[in-house]
Amino acid sequence: MLIRWKTATHPSSLLLLATALIACLLLQPAEASLGDRLPEFRECVEVCDHENCDPNNDPTPIPLHHRLLFWTCAQECDYTCQHITTTRRVESGQSVTQFHGKWPFVRVLGVQEPFSVLFSIGNFLAHQNGLGRLRERVPSTYPMRWYYEVFAYFGMASWVFSSIFHTRDFKATEQLDYFGAGASVLYGMYYAMVRVLRLDLPTPRRRSILRLWTVFCCALYVAHISYLKFWRWDYTYNMTANLIVGMVHNLLWSCFSWARWRETGQSWAIWPSMLVAWIMLAMSLELLDFPPLWGALDAHSLWHLGTIAPAVLWYKYVLPLTTFEETLLTVHSFMIKDSQDLAKAVKLKDIKA
Ligand SMILES: [Zn+2]
């Protein structure tokens, strides 16, 4: 947008880490943004609106690619004034401050948070390629394959919503992002429980537990969405809820890893716990709320970057491994039996000698 600034420029350890994460999120004060309360910012917006947005005063046209992303004249002024105010503050040795609860990002082609969009697309591709790999490596007869495929679909959908939200932040796109991420995290916990306890196996007891577990998780999601949508849009609650569900998911896979490692002593058994630890570390980046480097790279985008590699490795190793886990365990028990037989044979030879 060609904004006439002649008047606007008037002088003016896993468990410890998890506990720390929850504590920090709960203790975080409800921060109102300083930036949009600054007099110089307010004055800038007022002058800009008058100069550019008044239909009776030859309004400045908005470029097509901005209009396609629903930028209005008032929003163009708000964006431009955020950067004018920030530049002035930095030049006079003051800190960069947030506006309307967000850091002043430099948009690219109208995209508000370009790195978060780029990394969200990276995550989407990791799940999409993972789905292809899953279909190649996991036989269709394996009962858990259906659950793994749904996991990939949830992942893909939530990262599409994330890309849309970071392209343009509106109430509706924010809700889509939050609800999509919530569904994805909750489904992660759901299928982890099914896999770890093998609730997919067709025994009457398992079937009943699976039914109860499914109803419980669906009810949890409906309650979560209803609370946010009809009661209170609460950022801290949303983050805490996702964090708790994510931790149960991590705990389930860590128990799985521990049990298999004790059983076999094989390195493949530690893959799930390694990857969930990686995700926890990436998640802790969310706590480092610093102004975006070069106006674009912030802690939130780095958290989205940090989840790409574990997603790739999850589909590459963990899901195929858990599919052939029974085979691996059988091979391992045969190996133990063989070595015991060998030891017995050697002993017998010693006795005979
Ligand atoms: Zn995000």
UniProtKB/TrEMBL annotation:
Signal peptide residue numbers: 1-32
Topology class, membrane: Multi-pass membrane protein
Main location: membrane
InterPro entries, per database record: Per1-like
Localization, UniProt: Endomembrane system; Endoplasmic reticulum membrane
One GO term of the biological process aspect: GPI anchor biosynthetic process
Entry's Gene Ontology molecular function annotations: hydrolase activity, acting on ester bonds
Alphabetical list of Pfam families matching this protein: Per1
Stretches that traverse the bilayer: 105-126, 146-166, 178-197, 209-227, 239-256, 268-288, 300-319
Superkingdom: Eukaryota
GO cellular component assignments: endoplasmic reticulum membrane
Alphabetically ordered keywords of this record: Endoplasmic reticulum, GPI-anchor biosynthesis, Membrane, Signal, Transmembrane, Transmembrane helix
Family recorded in the similarity comment: Belongs to the PGAP3 family.
Function (record text): Involved in the lipid remodeling steps of GPI-anchor maturation.
Descriptive protein name: Post-GPI attachment to proteins factor 3
Species whose genome carries this gene: Xylaria multiplex
